[in-house]
Write a structure and sequence with these properties.
The structure holds two protein chains of two kinds. By secondary structure, chain A is of the alpha+beta class. Chain A folds into two domains: 118 residues, 2-Layer Sandwich (Uridine Diphospho-n-acetylenolpyruvylglucosamine Reductase, domain 3); 208 residues, Vanillyl-alcohol Oxidase, Chain A, domain 3. Helix content of chain A is 28%, strand content 24%. In chain A, the strands form four sheets. Chain A has an eight-stranded antiparallel β-sheet with strand order 15-11-13-12-18-19-17-20. In chain A, helix 9 packs antiparallel against helix 10. A seven-stranded parallel β-sheet of chain B has the order 3-2-1-4-5-6-7, sandwiched between helices. The longest helix of chain B is centred in the middle third of the chain and has 26 residues. By secondary structure, chain B is an alpha/beta fold. Helices cover 48% and strands 14% of the residues of chain B. The chains are: A alpha+beta, B alpha/beta. Chains A and B meet through strand 1, helix 1, strand 5 and helix 2 of A and helix 2 of B. The complex binds flavin-adenine dinucleotide. The site of flavin-adenine dinucleotide has 32 residues of chain A, from strand 3, helix 3 and strand 10.
């Protein structure tokens, strides 16, 4: 018998935290039992990793949640090929700490160390090397899951049958809607060691940023962007380029700073952010600088402060992230940055990055072009701002990253993601009663309507 | 077995390796370079933990069936341990994380559950350690960690049957410490407060909850400092000192 407990579960943006009946199995057998019970209960099942998705994707009001965090083991590893097999709750931090010194790291690593392999599959996550190495799903060899019917299945990346292929492509970036992922098999990539040589340089405006990212041939590249910059400073920032290294990194700082309570709103007033951004920009000398960083410091800069999402106060915050195709990037990004700067609502966290080829999932976010991410404290007016930013994104043929979203509509989704209809059809066949669900899947009308059970 | 080589990492038997604390401790012990033998009931689960530890740390890992309900379990364990100790580079060590905690009202409804509670939290563990003790005497070293509970410090209405079994285990460990200390082996009693495990998942009234990894690290740190009794997190020593000093005529009216 599974032990179910009512606990508040929110997204990383902490917009709301509904009490949810949750189980946290510690053994593989307990995982299967919890998933089966939740599927049978018919209140909807949400799978949940580390809760690092921002909006309502890992939230399910009135349903059940199965938390994977305690099932975090590495089950197999081939030191010749880098092929690895883990439980769904294994996170990037464990893998990097154990395997980077041996010469291997995951080929796509998001900016938060605790993201789980289940979450990595479910959002087809990308890292600072996306333009060179693709997204997480590109390296997945197989996924073992419990389908919404309760039946265990293994989905192979190289499956040839149409239905199998379909299911695999619905699972990569599929937000947990195709079933409860138990285990994942994927390939890691080589690294000379656990550090990175990082080069930072100033880019005075948007044009310079794009040119720098475009011409960079570094394996890892990303820009910090001053989302408060206007006029001549519009789109200015710092370009960071890096290569993996085997040089011994300076030791990781052991203790973490922890944000113990919700910060007062004044901390992120536009004046404070403006000053912060100005200082941050000027800290890098005009001629640039180069440094050797521990891999974790380089990959997870925000993780130095645990629970930093509390800095945004108790109303929480929203993140905006879109990707625009190359030919639309300059004009579209300028519109987005102008709109954000005019609202004077941004936080210091603005990130711009060049993306490579599209992912394998039906709803994979990555595509060739440029991705922009900005955080906004959840103040009055922020929804209007987001609506405008979404409209600009759509107008420039871009799409919104669902891992960060909380307001997109089903119609907008269809216009941004060409394969959304195919995804819906797959889900309708696989899960006609809408047993796998999240607040997001309801909002985006992705889980099948359960009319037979009396509607929502 | 070569306990003379005190710097060699040796090996740890982890009794109760499928519990969150046992798993965390096995990982932490392997992190020091020690071989580990996972002992518990769920072989499939321990196989997964064994692969994990082998692949992430490179140490040798064995998996042994140990079911506290099986009367032969302690003797079987001692036999395997004796053979395993021969293969170790360094001392044999053992850590005990086994325990079971049915709800007090389940016990009130069926007092026959008291036997199994006493077995799972005391008798089977004490018998196991007793059968292992000669190995520690022979190697003149090594460490034993016995995990009890703050619940064993005083009988409370909410879980006094569980608490009584833990108290018995504490007393046993204290005696074993007295015995093995004479030959250079060390016994440490660990009394965790609230730990975030399957046992406490969703229980109301939890506060200042420790992660299993923190308990594991505290165990190793406490051991290296030669501690005899360790409360984790440390502030529980203060809480329990207060709880222990409340006079019985008042305590009997409390329902904490
Ligand atoms: C600071 C920060 C930086 C980030 N940087 C990046 C970045 O650089 N690139 C990027 O791509 N993303 C980034 N993200 C987003 C993050 O990578 C994704 O939201 C990721 O999916 C979160 O994984 P999680 O384990 O926390 O899963 P959760 O947030 O708990 O869940 C996310 C989704 O995965 C599903 N899921 C989780 N486990 C399972 C399972 N076992 N079976 C089925 N479905 C499952 C859930 O149902 C849900 O739909 C960042 C997030 C933060 C907070």
């Amino acid at each position: 018998m599974t032990s179910w407990a009512e606990i508040p579960l929110s997204g990383w943006g902490r917009l709301s935290a509904p009490e949810t009946l949750a189980a946290r199995p510690e053994r593989a057998a307990g995982f299967d039992a919890a998933v089966d019970e939740a599927l049978d209960a018919g209140e909807g099942l949400l799978m949940r990793g580390a809760g690092r998705s921002y909006g309502d994707q890992a939230v399910l009001k009135g349903g059940r949640a199965v938390l994977t965090e305690r099932l975090d083991r590495v089950l197999a590893f081939d030191p010749e090929t880098g092929a690895i097999e883990t439980e769904a709750g294994c996170d990037f931090q464990r893998l990097i700490r154990a395997f980077a010194p041996k010469g291997w790291i995951p080929a796509a690593i998001p900016g938060a160390a605790n993201v789980t392999m289940g979450g990595a599959v479910a959002n087809d996550v990308h890292g600072k090397n996306h333009h060179a190495d693709g997204s997480f799903g590109d390296h997945v060899e197989w996924i073992e899951l419990i389908a919404p019917s309760g039946k265990p299945r293994i989905l192979m990346a190289d499956a040839t049958g149409r239905a199998e292929k379909d299911l695999f492509r619905a699972t990569i970036g599929g937000m947990g809607l195709t079933g409860a992922i138990r285990r994942v098999g994927f390939r890691m990539m080589r690294t000379p060691g656990a550090s990175a040589v990082v080069k930072e340089s100033r880019a005075p405006d948007l044009e310079a940023q794009l040119a720098a990212l475009e011409s960079s041939d570094a394996r890892f590249s990303v820009s910090w962007i001053d989302a408060m910059g206007t006029g001549a400073h519009l789109g200015r920032g710092l370009v960071e380029e890096a290569e993996l290294s085997g040089a011994p990194p300076r030791s990781l700082k052991k203790g973490k700073t922890r944000v113990p309570f919700n910060a007062p709103g004044a901390l992120l007033s536009s004046l404070v952010v403006k000053i912060f951004n100005e200082v941050h920009y000027r800290l890098v000398p005009a001629g640039g600088r180069e440094s050797l960083k521990a891999l974790e410091t380089f990959l997870f800069p925000l993780d130095a402060i645990a629970d930093w999402n509390r800095l945004y106060g108790k109303r929480g915050f929203r993140q905006f992230q879109c990707v625009l195709p190359p030919d639309q990037a300059e004009a579209g990004l300028a519109r987005l940055l102008e709109r954000a700067a005019a609202a004077q609502a941004a936080s210091p966290l603005g990130v711009l990055k060049r993306m490579g080829a599209a992912g394998r999932g039906r709803l994979s976010f990555p595509m060739e072009g440029y991705t922009l991410a900005m955080d906004f404290p959840n103040r009055p007016g922020v929804e209007e701002l987001l609506v405008d930013l979404y409209a600009i994104t759509e107008k420039h043929h871009g799409r919104i990253y669902l891992a960060k979203d909380s307001i997109l509509s089903a119609r907008e989704l269809d216009r941004m993601y060409a394969e959304a209809g195919t995804f819906r059809n797959t889900i309708a066949k696989l899960d006609p009663h809408g047993r796998m669900r999240s607040d997001m899947s309801e909002r985006l009308e992705l889980s099948a309507r359960h009319a037979a059970e009396g509607g929502k | 077995m070569s306990a003379e080589n005190t710097t060699a990492p040796g090996g740890w038997i982890v009794l109760g390796a499928t519990s969150a604390m046992g798993r965390a401790f096995a990982r932490a012990a392997a992190g020091t370079g020690a071989a580990v033998a996972l002992a518990g009931r769920d072989i499939a689960d321990m196989d997964a933990t064994a692969s994990d530890i082998r692949l992430t740390t490179g140490v040798e890992v064995s998996v042994w069936l140990f079911d506290a309900a099986d009367p032969n379990a302690p003797a079987d364990l001692a036999q395997r341990a004796a053979a395993w100790a021969e293969t170790l580079d360094g001392a044999l060590n053992a850590a005990v994380f086994i325990g079971s905690m049915p709800e007090q009202d389940e016990i009130d409804a069926d007092p026959a559950l008291i036997g199994p509670v006493a077995r799972d939290n005391y008798a089977a563990l004490a018998e196991s350690l007793h059968r292992l003790a000669p190995l520690f005497e022979a190697q003149k070293g090594g460490a034993i960690i016995g995990v009890g509970s703050v619940a064993g410090d005083r009988g409370r209405i909410k879980n006094y049957v569980y608490g009584a079994a833990k108290a018995a285990f504490h007393t046993y460990l204290s005696g074993l410490r007295n015995r093995l200390g004479r030959c250079g082996a060390h016994v440490m009693t660990v009394k965790p407060g609230f730990v975030d495990t399957a046992m406490t998942w969703g229980l109301p009234g939890m506060f200042l909850v420790a992660r299993p990894e923190e308990v594991a690290e505290s165990c190793l740190a406490g051991l290296s400092k030669g501690r005899n009794v360790l409360y984790v997190p440390w502030f529980w020593i203060g809480i329990m000192t207060i709880i222990r000093t409340v006079p019985e005529r008042i305590f009997k009216k409390l329902s904490i």
